[in-house]
Amino acid sequence: MFDHVLVPLDHSSLAEAALGYARHMVDVNGRITLLTVVDAPENDDPVEHVSPGLTTMASMPVAIKQNARVQAENYLNQVVYRVQKLHLDVNTIVQIGLPADVIVDTARNLGVKVIVMSTHGRTGLGRWIYGSVTQKVLSAAPCPVLVIPSRVQPHEAES
Q1: What pTM did the predictor assign?
Q2: Looking at CB atoms within 10 Å, which of 7, 61, 138, 139 has the fewest?
Q3: In a domain? residue 47
Q4: pLDDT, average across residues 15-24
């Protein structure tokens, strides 16, 4: 049993499969932190081409990120509502950045004891070309990582 478990979520039911495992891994007096990362584009430059009638604003990327942050917070609030029915101490965090980096940094900064996350099952050439958030977390995490394979259905993990 662990006193602090980190569960990264990406709005998918597949990622939420990790919740069932996390709840069985947390101590009675422990807590679960749910993390959603708003993936930051590598280029934060303002939009160059604008159609007639639209206003060009240098802060447009910031507004888009803020909207994504609000959507992520709403999503996590819905998840917390479901998880708190299990009488667990649950915290939420929304960060903007590169998902793997943010997951590893959050685990380190919070001193979590384990990360429980799902893999989306990318294999073969796609995995090598695009990389894998899960693989990056596994290689850099400051704590153990429990990876739930993509073949596990969310309802299997909740019991």
Answers
A1: 0.78
A2: 139
A3: no
A4: 90
